[in-house]
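Below is our example:
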Amino acid sequence: MKFLASLALSAALATTAFAQSISIQAPADGTTVQAGSSITVEVIQHSSLSDLVQVALAIGMGVPNLAPAIGDTILYNGPFNPQIQNTGIPTGQGPPTASLQNFTVTIPASTPAGLMSLNVAHFDLVGAIKGPSTETVNITLNVV
């Protein structure tokens, strides 16, 4: 009986680990942004073989190398509902679609000049048993 419980737990963890991931499509890593300006953060949900239930997403800024922390400035905290988009990739050369969502956020005018980390934290439920999964991704912005 313990073997079956261990096997089920291992399968659930493997499903969670390999099921999904997000990335920041825009802005590009290293982009220069103006303090006080608005930017569009495009988050892509990569294809998954597992059933996903999106729960939430948070976008924050902070000094570089905070991962998995989100930073001391929260720019967005709320639902994540990516929509399927056609990527234009020809059939057989990659996934023809991706799920993405754009968020318009404002870089606070008080943000100090220099390198800052734009961080996105993602929370979802994965697989048939809906195991919780979290991840954090980031890029570096040059604030002027």
